[in-house]
Amino acid sequence: MRTATRTTRTATRIGATGAAAALSLVLAACGGGDTGSMDHSSMSSESSTTSSSPPVSATSSAAVDAEHNDQDVVFAQMMIVHHQGALEMADTATTKASSQEVEDLAATIKAAQQPEIEQMTSWLAAWGEPTEADSSMEGMDHSATPPTGGSSMPGMMTEEQMPQLQNATGTDFDRLFLQMMIEHHTGAVRMAETEQQQGSNPQAQDLADSIVMTQNAEIEQMNQMLTTLG
């Protein structure tokens, strides 16, 4: 659909350009060498304005398709919050990790998830939807059983867990960070799998595919790192 739209717009621009060229030849033939009576500056200005200002719809459609359903909205709203939780954990690891490997992993997570937050926020704005989830939509099946005393989203840290992570040091910190991030990633994968099954927006489903692939790979990596820690 997006390709067809771009093709139609291109054909329209080409047609308009050809028509303008043909009109110029006719006017030149009728007017001979006398161009003083024609307001060329006005014509040039109008032509320049048209060519330098692409339709707003074309610019918007390049970012995200208008087609979406409630699941796409909930996916974006909830995954933004979920990613923010991962960034908070990763920020802690960049200063407290005792292992360079753990610190590097935290940096990788931040580099991947911050742009995704910005991407999903822009989608919600384009759809005219709020960034925060409507409580009436939270009952949709996009979460696993939450941890004891914890969040309605799978894998999110509880109020008790974050202080535990912040207060841990050395190898104990690395181990706790990996354990918590594995749980967090597992929750994100489950949310993304629901988007794969129930969403309709192609960009949201592409992101869900990427989250499933990337975070499953990181879960495997972190399990191996835990084995090394002993």
Structural class: mainly alpha
Q: Output the CATH homologous superfamily of the largest domain.
A: Ferritin, core subunit, four-helix bundle
User: Could you tell me the strand content as a percent range?
Assistant: under 5%
Q: Please, how many domains?
A: 2
Write the element-wise H/E pattern from the N-terminal end onward.
HHHHHHHH
What kind of sheet is the major sheet? Answer: none
Query: What's the alpha carbon Rg, rounded to whole Å?
Result: 26 Å
> In the CATH scheme, what's the topology name of the largest domain?
Ferritin
How far apart are the termini? 53 Å
- Give the CATH architecture of the largest domain: Up-down Bundle
User: What is the CATH class name of the largest domain?
Assistant: Mainly Alpha
Low-confidence stretches: 1-62, 136-151
> How many DSSP helices?
8
The average pLDDT value, as a whole number, equals 76
- Percentage of helical residues? over 70%
Shape category: elongated
Overall strand count:
0
